[in-house]
Design brief:
The chain is mainly α. The chain is built from eleven helices and no strands. Helix content is 82%, strand content 0%. Helix 1 runs parallel beside helix 3, helix 2 packs antiparallel against helix 6 and helix 8 packs antiparallel against helix 11.
Length: 271
């Protein structure tokens, strides 16, 4: 059954990506290959994130004992999602490749090559590291080294993907030139809300749930956990804080730009 889950993932995610490319190319004939590949990759990312969040919510709500209760979705969804992580690296590379070609910069790759791959790795090194770590570290730990413990916490980590559909939607709205609309501002609010809640607050929540079960105050939980657990959580949390700071800066730039535009409109009306 577990092998079936991985095979399904290997079929579903590349199939969806190819389908999105064909559908978008037919609907938006004026779009470049860069536009089509970029939106297809973001749609695929949003679908995977919705599935991961749903799986995580089911697991978390089903585990009463945060350490010993188990759920079949943990291993099966981990294997189902593994092909997505691998394929998304390829999809991100394609998006980078076509975008650089459309820009026509002097460093833009003329064809697929090691130079093109290296340029992608340099530019998107953090996302590449994130996906690679999930495949080479998170997946083996989940499948082989947990000794069947902590399904509740794996479910919590699955729910961190809740912000991804909103992030993808924001990028798609920009692609459609709807970045100055109310819809984009509302979506931006939900990006910040879901990112902060599910990617940052989820860590103190997990510590709180562990402490509640074993009668340990929240501020003492870290001292009752093995060092590798705290280090692992910190390694996962650190980039989330970094990305959240970037999102806040981007939101502030957008707010300031809209204020300037509104000020210019008011000034024009006054004149």
């Amino acid at each position: 059954m577990m092998l079936t889950a991985m095979v399904c993932g290997a079929v579903v995610f590349p199939g969806l990506f190819c389908s999105f490319r064909k559908i978008l190319k037919h609907i938006f004939r004026q779009w470049s290959d860069a536009d089509i590949v970029s939106v297809s990759e973001r749609l695929l990312s949003a679908i995977h994130a919705c599935l991961a969040t749903a799986a995580g919510a089911i697991i978390v709500s089903s585990c009463r004992d945060v350490m010993t209760d188990s759920h079949w979705l943990v291993n099966n969804f981990t294997l189902f999602g593994a092909p997505y992580m691998a394929f998304d690296l390829y999809a991100m590379y394609l998006s980078h490749y076509h975008t650089e070609r459309v820009r026509g910069s002097s460093t833009a790759p003329s064809s697929h090559s090691l130079h093109a791959v290296w340029a992608f790795l340099v530019k998107e090194w953090m996302l590449v590291l994130h996906h690679t770590a999930l495949l080479l570290i998170f997946m083996p730990i989940t499948l082989f080294f947990r000794r069947g413990l902590g399904d509740f916490f794996i479910g919590c980590l699955f729910t961190t993907e809740l912000s991804t559909p909103f992030v993808s939607t924001g990028k798609i709205l920009i692609q459609l030139r709807l970045d100055n609309t109310r819809l984009h501002r509302i979506n931006g609010f939900f990006v910040l809300l879901t990112f902060f809640t599910c990617r940052i607050l989820v860590f103190p929540f997990m510590y709180y749930m562990y402490g509640r079960q074993f009668g340990i105050p929240l501020h003492k939980v870290a001292f009752h956990l093995p060092l590798q657990c705290n280090v692992g959580n910190l390694v996962i949390l650190a980039p989330q804080i970094y990305w959240f700071i970037l999102l806040l800066r981007k939101a502030n730039r957008l707010y300031q730009r809209q204020r300037r535009q509104q000020g210019d409109k008011d000034k024009t009306k006054a004149d």
